[in-house]
Amino acid sequence: MGGSIAGLFAARVLADRARQVVVLEPDEITAEAGTRAGVPQDQQVHTLLPAGHQWVERWIPGVTEEARERGASLCGPDKTVTALNGFPQASYEGGHHMLAIGRPLLEGLIRDRVTALPHVSLVRARATGLRYTDGATDGVRFVPTGADGHGTQEEETLAADFVVDAMGRSSRLSHWLEEDGYDQPRLERLEAPVNYATALFERPTTFEDLESAAVLQLFTPDHPSGGVSVAAANAIEGGQWLVMLMGYGDNRPGRTAEEFRAACAKLPGIFGEATSGALTRPVVAYHQADSRRRHFTGAGGLPARLVAVGDAVASFNPVYGQGMSSAALHASCLASYLAGGADLDTAATEFFRLQQVVVDAAWTVSAGGDAARLDAANGTEVPEEVRRQRWAMEQILEATLTDGDVSRAFQEVSYMLRHPAALADPDILKKAMAANEGTVTP
Ligand SMILES: Cc1cc2nc3c(=O)[nH]c(=O)nc-3n(C[C@H](O)[C@H](O)[C@H](O)COP(=O)(O)OP(=O)(O)OC[C@H]3O[C@@H](n4cnc5c(N)ncnc54)[C@H](O)[C@@H]3O)c2cc1C
User: Fold this and answer.
1) Which of 318, 335, 363 is the last residue of a domain?
2) CA 143/CA 192 separation, integer angstroms
3) Is the Cβ–Cβ distance between 34 and 137 less than 8 Å?
4) Could you tell me if 294 and 429 lie in one domain?
5) Fewer CB within 10 Å: N-end or C-end of the chain?
6) Domain of life here (predicted)?
């Protein structure tokens, strides 16, 4: 249920095990169709982090090559700048690649390859509920969707041996479960009101060194960025710069081209350069109020033969760029679960246990930062232990500007290649403190 990134990854994994995989997706899907109702965020920046990129190439080889042929950028360390307040984070040996690409193109490339598998099909339909026998899911109720994307016909039922919820952050699965007498996974929300604005600009071909580039800038609250907390510039297909500005709470980055360029003028020079060409697509704004996760591991009475993946399980503050890579990691959990001789006649507790490790790690990174900001804004008294953890994180962040080892550890956690616990290593903290020359005391 759901034919976006998480649903397609799950379909790819299921295709190794099932005789037939059917993806139900209500939206009309045409290559590079642009905005579609079910994925309103698809006009915003979508960088595929190294963890997600690795999985894409493992399961769907050739996506990167075609993406590059179409003009997307595969950005290695020499073409990627991550910076704090305009100061680049320290470089280190080796390095990882991320894909700078428009979201509709990436989704289209993945979808074309997954649906080209002989036993995978995409059906235009909206799932409306589940069917069960003896405590196990054995079918999906759905309504075929017409050309206008709305249900036009009677409800039907598709028999299924195994069902995956990939319906995104607004998934109705919890309500269906409750209505049907099963346990509802607990919903956890963390206020993180983010305002995105993304625009596309012509990219002059004269700047050869900028032909493949991803730039991510973080700004601390005292930086004179005019309320922009994060800015990114990706060199993507169509000879374009995709530029994103993000502000928290009441800070809404430019909505018009003039406001957008004026905001970029206050940022490091690359943003002025990236927005100097003609607009190829106007500014598109997007607001998200919270991060949320559903705790399937704590839900005792779930039906068998049912799992959930992607944003339907956890949807984070998007500035961390974790969503698509998380979806890939959830699919890898599904592959392990099925390969490990899963008992399909009991609830998929083992799958949800594997997935929780991935979700906890991603949540630690994104919710940790958001909780600190919320507490600071509300003047909340925080326990000593949390205060010390945050102080250690500040040390590490500051040291990423000068120390290659600290920068590597931080990047690998940010890129979802290592568990956040790697940053709790006392050696890393010692290095960070030495690099910062003990200028901050706990
Ligand atoms: C502003 C913003 C920026 C982001 N930037 C990044 C980034 O840089 N990098 C990154 O990795 N991630 C990013 N993300 C996250 C990313 O968009 C998602 O994590 C990713 O799309 C995976 O989501 P999904 O497939 O689980 O759900 P979605 O992409 O939300 O898709 C849900 C799908 O379910 C379908 N559906 C809904 N209801 C039904 C139903 N009843 N029956 C059948 N189908 C249904 C929808 O039509 C849709 O196709 C960003 C998100 C936002 C909001």
Assistant:
1) 363
2) 34
3) no
4) no
5) C
6) Bacteria
Per-residue confidence (pLDDT) for residue 441, from 0 to 100 = 45
The residue type of 290 is: D
Instruction: Say yes or no: CB of residue 314 within 6 Å of ligand 1.
Output: no
**With a 6 A CB cut-off, is 26 part of the ligand 1 pocket?**
yes
User: Is residue 120, in this structure, part of any structural domain at all?
Assistant: yes
Any ligand 1 atom below 6 A from CB of 196? yes
Pocket test for ligand 1, best of 46, 53, 291 (most atoms within 8 A of CB): 46
Who's near 115: CB < 8 A, 6+ residues apart? 23, 121, 122
Centre of ligand 1 from the C-alpha of residue 103, in Å: 10
Same domain, 325 and 395: no
The parent domain of residue 116 ranges over: 5-39+50-70+101-189+290-363
| 86 contacts 217 by C-beta, under 8 angstroms | yes
The answer to the question of residue 200 being in a domain is no
Q: Name the residue type at position 419.
A: H
pLDDT of residue 149: 47
* Tokens at 151, concatenated: 């249900």
State which ligand 1 atom lies nearest to the alpha carbon of 312.
26
> What is the arithmetic mean of pLDDT over 76-105?
90
Q: Are residues 300 and 421 in the same domain?
A: no
Q: Where are the alpha helices (DSSP H) in 46-184?
A: 50-59, 63-69, 103-115, 173-179
Quick check: 294 and 330 in contact, CB under 8 A?
A: no
In short, whether 334's Cβ falls inside 6 Å of ligand 1 is no
**Residue minimizing CA distance to atom 23 of ligand 1:** 311
132 Cα distance to chain centroid: 32
Question: Angle of helix 5-14 relative to helix 103-115, nearest 10 degrees?
Answer: 20
Answer whether residue 206 shows pLDDT above 80: no
Dihedral of the alpha carbons of 419, 420, 421, 425, in degrees to the nearest 10: 110
Ligand 1 atom nearest 194 alpha carbon:
1
Is 99 touching ligand 1 by the criterion CB < 6 Å?
no
- Is the CB of residue 25 below 6 angstroms from any atom belonging to ligand 1? yes
Q: Is the CB of 366 under 6 A from ligand 1?
A: no
Q: Is 2 in the pocket of ligand 1 (CB under 6 A)?
A: yes
User: Is 202 exposed, middle or buried (CB count within 10 Å of its CB: 0-12, 13-18, 19+)?
Assistant: middle
> CA angle, corner 291, sides to 290 and 296, nearest 5?
130
